[in-house]
Amino acid sequence: MSTSKSAQQPVSRAMFDDVMVPNYNPAKMIPVRGEGSRVWDQADTEYVDFAGGIAVNCLGHCHPAMVSALTEQGNKLWHLSNVFTNEPAIRLAKKLTDATFAERVYFANSGAEANEAALKLARRWALDNHGEQKQQIIAFTKGFHGRTFFTVTVGGQPAYSEGFGPKPGGIEHVAYNDLEALEKLMSEKTCAVMMEPLQGEGGIISPDQEFVKGVRELCDKHHALLIFDEVQTGFGRTGSLYAYEQLGVTPDILTTAKALGGGFPIGAMLTTATIASHLKPGTHGSTYGGNPLACAVAEAVFDVVNTEEVLTGVKQRESLFKKLLNDINDRHNVFKDIRGQGLLLGAELNDTWAGKARDFLNAGADEGVMVLIAGPNVIRFAPSLIIPEQDVIEGLARFERAVAKLAG
Q1: To the nearest whole percent, how much of the chain has pLDDT over 90?
Q2: 331, exposed or middle or buried, with CB in 10 Å at 0-12, 13-18, 19+?
Q3: What Å distances lie between residue 391 and 87, 269, 396, CA to CA?
Q4: What's the mean pLDDT when you consider all of the chain?
Q5: Which of 75, 91, 117, 219 has minimal Cβ neighbours within 10 Å of its Cβ?
Q6: What are the residue boundaries of the structural domains of the chain, listed by start?
Q7: Which residues of 4-161 form beta strands (DSSP E)?
Q8: 181-205 pLDDT, tens per residue?
């Protein structure tokens, strides 16, 4: 009786507060459908989507290739577990290894799980090859690597990891782009250095070229693994399939998720055959990882994204975004810096507006454009990689109206 009654209740934002754990505070409107780079809410209000599901919806909403792959695989086989393999997982792994430095792939369900696997592999590799004393993991302040207890501790934002009791040990942090600090901390006890090739949650911070090359050299010197967290930067986001390709540095382990499934949950860890050999049967696993439904969708996304047309288009859209954001700033003087790469861009607020990034996010929603933040001072843009230029122009016109209301 009560089940039937609740099923008939209209879904509202107020119902969210009644039934959901309060660790999120989502927008007041509820999106109900999307097409391309446009989204409509329950009141049929239209929004231009510059948030992209936090850099996930790389082909926008309901892309025909994704819908087709999901429908076709949904009528064949959904799930098997890791007791069996499946054709979509093998095909996707083959495409990923053919397109990257990697020779082996481990599938998971999210970026956090891919990072968890990478960190466990690094520790196991170090133990097998060098002994128990080689267990130090170094990461960078303001980094973000997921919300499991291991990954959130490796992430360099204490606000996310404190308040849950004793943390995993052997983890230390230095400032991003500070090669000297890293050099002082590293030793033969270091088993891995984990970094984003462009910090996302930390404020859209690009690495210095000398820094990235120096990190690689220090890892080689101390026989440590270099782990690139490309959960947010990967799969075309910066204008190449993975960001490492533009940095002249190859990691030992790479993690990928978000855009990998274009909106269907999937993550992966990529590495070499030699390093991968340390995860022997039974040492790590995932019930859903490598699910045929997820892998079929991700394969369809790969086939669209890994093309010259799409990757070149990302760079073209980056130029348009930066030009129009700078034009907005010329008229309203609210930004200190416009930065980022490809379609992972950040507009840092100037001192007058410091700490008010969420005000711009909310004002944008009121004007019909969805944006993100990256900390209290940076407005983040991570739209579809194939967003039509007209949608970029229209979305930023709406965003300018929001800026004008706040600044005016």
Answers
A1: 95
A2: exposed
A3: 37, 34, 8
A4: 96
A5: 75
A6: 2-63+308-407, 77-305
A7: 31-35, 38-41, 46-49, 104-108, 136-140
A8: 999 999 999 999 999 999 999 999 9
356's CB contacts (< 8 A; 6+ apart) are 349, 376, 406
Q: What is the rounded distance in angstroms from the CA atom of residue 31 to the CA atom of residue 269?
A: 32
Rounded distance, CA 139 to CA 361, Å?
29
Q: What phi and psi values does residue 176 have, to the nearest 5 degrees?
A: -65, 140
The 10s digit of each residue's pLDDT in 330-383 is 999 999 999 999 999 999 999 999 999 999 999 999 999 999 999 999 999 999
Assigned fold of 2-63+308-407: Aspartate Aminotransferase, domain 1 (3.90.1150)
Sign of the CA dihedral with 51 first, then 158, 106, and 93 last: positive
Q: Which residues contact residue 105 at a Cβ distance below 8 angstroms, ignoring those fewer than 6 apart?
A: 92, 93, 96, 97, 268, 269, 270
277 is an annotated ligand-binding site residue: no
Is 133 labelled a binding residue? no
Q: What is the pLDDT of residue 9?
A: 83
Catalytic residues: 144, 229, 258
pLDDT at 3 over 60: no
The DSSP element (H or E) to which 203 belongs, if any, is none
What are 30's two structure tokens?
């509820």
CATH topology of domain 77-305: Aspartate Aminotransferase; domain 2 (3.40.640)
- Chain-centroid distance of CA 262 in Å reads 11
Give me the mean pLDDT over the 228-237 stretch: 98
The tokens describing 32, both together, are: 């109900």
Beta bridge partners of 225: 192
The answer to the question of whether 232 is labelled as a binding residue is yes
DSSP letters, 79-122, are: ---TTS--HHHHHHHHHHHHHSS-SEEEEESSHHHHHHHHHHHH
Query: CA-to-CA distance for 352 and 357, rounded, in angstroms?
Result: 12
- 111 among annotated binding-site residues: yes
Predicted local confidence at residue 1, as pLDDT = 45
- 39-83 tens-digit pLDDT: 999 999 999 999 999 999 999 999 999 999 999 999 999 999 999
Q: For residue 121, how many other CB atoms are within 10 A of its CB?
A: 24
**Which H or E run includes 322?**
helix 308-332
Both structure tokens of 193: 């250095």
- The type of residue at 373 is I
